[in-house]
Design brief:
Blueprint lengths: L13 E7 L5 E7 L1 H10 L3 E4 L4 E4 L8 E8 L6 E7 L27 H13 L6 H8 L1 H20 L3 H22 L3 H23 L1
Parallel strand pairs: 1-6
Antiparallel strand pairs: 1-2, 3-4, 5-6
Helix pairs in contact: 2-5, 4-5
Length: 214
Amino acid sequence: MNINELKFDEKGLIPAIVQDYRTKEVLTVAYMNRESLEITLKEKRTCFFSRSRQKLWRKGETSGNVQNVVTIKADCDGDALVVEVDKTGPACHTGSESCFFNDLYENPDYKQFSYEKLYEMIKGRKTEKKEGSYTTYLFEKGLDKILKKVGEECTEVIIGAKGGSKEETIFEIADLAYHVMVLMVETGISTSDIFDELASRHVVDKKIKQETMK
């Protein structure tokens, strides 16, 4: 699909759902007209049309929190866009990472979880020590203790998997993932660093497959 196939509304606008390309979190919903979309495609940074001000605005032109475009996809009808971005700062003017932070309803049967939130919680235990916290205890003991725990958990994963117990293996992998995150915080490695490394390998794998198919 190309820009000429998109269906802008009677005001010449199309809604654009902006999403973090790493976490897939919805950051904001804005609108584009043809000109702002063309600017976005050319500059590879989000540019929207402000309905309240009736003018174009480039995200980050005053705040510095720009959104570098990774992908733009249109829905099946061509009348809405999803824009995946690599942002350099908060998406919301309030300073929040996302504009969607006001809870309206949460199903108690489901638990909200993300690796990013867990990482931030662990990071908080290092910067603001909490008495009685196991995570804080690990940071206080230092790198050698953390590395020892990572090694122990690796062994536990192997034992669980070798024993054929799926439940035990899941439990031990979760323990390992947690301790690896503690190690990441201790050594200054972010979840984005790991994401980008895996993504780069994925691209390499694609190229290898393409070469072998020739």
